[in-house]
Amino acid sequence: MIWQNPWAWLGLSALALPLLIHLLGRGHARKARFPSLRFLPASQLLPTRRTRIHDPLLLLVRLAILAFAAAALAQPLWVTAVRDRSRAAALARVLIVDTSASTRRATSTGRPALDVARTEAKLLADSAKPALIVETAAPRRAVAGAAAWLEHQPVRGEIVVLSDFQLGTLGAEDVAATPRNVGIRLVRISASTDGSISSRARTVNGTAIATATVTDANTVAEWKRAPEIAATTTDVELLAAPADAQSADAALHAAHSLGAPLPADTTHHVAIVYPGYPARVAVVVGTGSSLSAWMTNLISAIHGDSLLVASLHDETVPDSFHVDGLVVARSASGLPVLTATADTLPGHERLLLHAAMPPGSLASAALIAAVERATSLAPVAAEADPSSLPDSLLSAWQRPPAKNAPRRAATSGGESDGRWLWIGVIALLVIEMVVRRSSRERAEASVEPMVRERVA
What pTM, to 2 d.p., does this model score? Predict the structure, then answer.
């Protein structure tokens, strides 16, 4: 027998209550109706303390009720041969579906690898009980949580990872950290690739297309310029003084020389406000809107840009620079050098980045480049890598689930034989009511002979 909730046995401490009630309870003097009290001396009604247990049968019934209730709450489970065979055949699965950008590539059938993985995961989930499907762009981070969930299941467990298994999708340390009784199955969803990586970037002279072909021997990189493809105009609005227009254009030209990955997000608007902008005071006063979710995400990406952080190391902050907003970056001295606010223009929202540096500085060019990188919709470069984990390594990492189901407590909602004990509790309550009524009737019946004896 397995007790699935052993902590419930602490409820047996409640057995002391009926004992205390029977031992410490005070009896009350009984009153009897009598025609006349003229010839009887006056007496005082005094409570009496019990020195022995009255109604032992009633006490035993009440103790049995509490004991049966505690046992039922402990959720007993009789482990029979039939149940052992059923538990051995049952299997709990956690299906981890890789949703990273590389799984958007098409398979040989033309369907995206992610759609194929989701269909396969649904089929595997239908053949397991219980089953859990987890979609994540980082499968290795979900392995530990999947193993922890399976450790609480009363049946054998298996982790299934469906992915194209790019390099870095899974590691030997992730497999080693999984309990040995948990099975691991790795299902490769192969996406068609010619072994090349292609990306587009906006440059000063137009659009540059970089193609890298990876082979076992070397990597061949090929650059092509595509002037016939119109370069997307910058989505960063530079608000500077008229005298600083050429400096701002030079900073923009320098930022484009670094290349901005394409495609770019053209649905959101960003403006950089420099100290000399004539309407800067009016812009600062008019910023009363709260930051939207896309703004905070963009600010987070700009804040972590390594090139921008390096360029701001020696940047000085003018005494006149002060904007109440979210601090995005600070100088080496700790003073805010870049703050963010938002304003609502007719028809669209706009993120305002208030910069303390002059428009023509290196930090200004680094800021423009950081904004363009943050607004890029291009996938991470690593997701374009066609290299993947070899099949031999995946086979070495796989293992079947344990042959025998673990004898552990089932999760809530699992099978339990406690219902029979609850039926016993109900039956004992009925018996307790009958015994209690019978005891009361006997006590009342004993009063009449005592009265008759007193009168005589």
Answer: 0.50
